[in-house]
Design a protein that fits this description.
Elements lengths: L2 E5 L3 H12 L4 E5 L2 H11 L3 E4 L8 H11 L5 E5 L4 H9 L4 E4 L4 H12 L4 E2 L1
Parallel strand pairs: 1-2, 1-3, 3-4, 4-5, 5-6
């Protein structure tokens, strides 16, 4: 199974994603802000990152840009409550691998992660 970095300032969101993804056997690591996320990415080399957009310190798009600069092959699933079309377009333009809206639905999360891990994209 995959190593997944969950980046979200909400403890509840991280806990929920962890529960969904550990049920599929994935190894989970967490970060609660963008700077910690970049550091954890460099140390842990996860197979996939789930990334919130609104966090203290750095905006999710800035984190996404830095991850893509460090690793052009980084697979990043943006998971956010901001469901505006313009936000989705910005994530796509920045190289996101997928977009997932909150509140999380277990089956949609698991399906999006599986799609990305098998080389696809997930724009739900």
């Amino acid at each position: 199974m995959a190593k997944i970095l969950i980046v979200d300032d909400s403890t509840m969101s991280r806990r929920m994603l962890r529960r969904f993804l550990e049920a599929d056997g994935h190894q989970i690591i967490e970060a609660d802000d963008g700077l910690v996320a970049i550091e954890r990415y460099m140390l842990e080399h996860p197979d996939l990152v789930t990334l919130d957009m609104t966090m203290r310190g750095m905006h999710g798009l800035d984190v996404l840009a830095q991850l893509r600069a460090l690793d052009p092959a980084a697979r990043v699933l943006v998971a956010t409550a901001d469901i505006q079309r313009s936000t989705r377009d910005m994530v796509h333009a920045a190289g996101g691998s997928g977009f997932l809206s909150k509140p999380f639905e277990e089956e949609r999360v698991r399906r999006a992660v599986a799609q990305i891990l098998t080389g696809g994209r997930a724009w739900n």
